[in-house]
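Thread: glutamine complex, take 2
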Amino acid sequence: MTELTSLTIADARDGLTTKRFSASELAEAHLAAMEKARVLNAYVLETPDVARAMACESDRRIAAGKAGPLEGIPVAIKDMFCTKDVRTTACSHILDTFVPAYESTVTAQLWRDGAVLLGKTNNDEFAMGSSNETSFFGPVTSPWRRQGANTPLVPGGSSGGSAAAVAAGICLGATGTDTGGSIRQPAAFAGIVGVKPTYGRCSRWGTIAFASSLDQAGPFARSVRDAAILLRSMAGHDAKDTTSIDQPVPDYEAAIGKSVKGMKIGIPKEYRVGGMAAEIETLWAQGADWLKKAGADIVEVSLPHTRYALPAYYIVAPAEASSNLARYDGVRYGLRENGRDITDMYERTRASGFGAEVRRRIMIGTYVLSAGYYDAYYLRAQKVRTLIKKDFEDCFDKGVNAILTPATPSAAFGIGEKGGADPVEMYLNDVFTVTVNMAGLPGISVPGGLSSEGLPLGLQLIGRPFDEETLFSLGEVIEQAAGRFTPQAWW
Ligand code: GLN
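Output below.
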């Protein structure tokens, strides 16, 4: 990383306002770094012309004293967010030529506040995955490597491109979407901060839908403060998304450095899953200790329905996905394969446009929603979801301010190492994150240390609805204690 690409957003903001460097210089430094890092496959589309034009506008606004809160900050956007006139594919063949005529609300708000678009980042196809290996554009390689080895590792998924780009210093911050863990898990694998806000905090308008009752946009950044800065711009009510909530967006950055004294932090005993790696166990205890030293009270709590979360998620998410993805039929969007008649055209288009994991989800989803199975699977999963939500409510009713857990059951694994023979092996990665989406709660993943192999490990904090501020305050305590983690450049 160069001097300009290793800055935090907060530092870059200072440098830009005091005119130590210009937005154009900052953008150029990143464009050059992106070119050098292409082997990571973090970007599926680089947009240097757009970046230069936006940076130039930023410099004009800074000179005129009209800088927005993210003025001149170069960011990467997961390819699940529609960007006007910029190709948006969900990393699927079925959309690989799709150029939206409109901008998603989340990205529109970033541009409103002055951010600069560097490009679109790679993700698992339609955000289905935990390793960024299901992308039509090929896997992302993590900027991290095990000590003394050069096995290519996954960056986590589904927002693997965004996480890798932030960790590798080829953007200052990035967006992700999190349906079952796709922001928090890759943030943990990449040694950075990732936030999944409360359901309804960010508008879903213009974000390609995977599972609508679970999907939520959120930021990736190299510090807790930077994540807070980004979320403030991304969040907010949007009349175009009826599930977005009309509540004022707080100044999240003001929560950084706030005392956490007297806060009650729950440690859910059910998350101590059988066979948990010793180093994950140690990391978790260390995290609790740091919060305790900062004055928080650590209490054991119970979330008794945790063990049903993963099976229930893998019914609800595919069910919603099968319905959402029905729109890709070769008629209105992207790919069309010719057929004998309209049914044949649909079948050929969908068979060639969707990859194996997406087809699997559509089949599971269609099955659990079909007459005769609906009550046994889908309805039952919805009931379990209500119970999971109630577990959390009971905890918060007892005065718990936030819950601390590990973010993932392990550090990053090698490309091709997991899920080949048994997709469920990959699904197990989400064991600590899916409950949060099922309950609609906010969660943050903060780096807590390194594994014995020198790979980042993340801690997750789960908060009360719309209390992202507490997560930022607590996250900052962990960050102060653990430090920050940067991969050694090998690319
Ligand atoms: N890994 C989970 C899945 O495959 C979650 C993905 C996500 O959050 N988008 O469904």
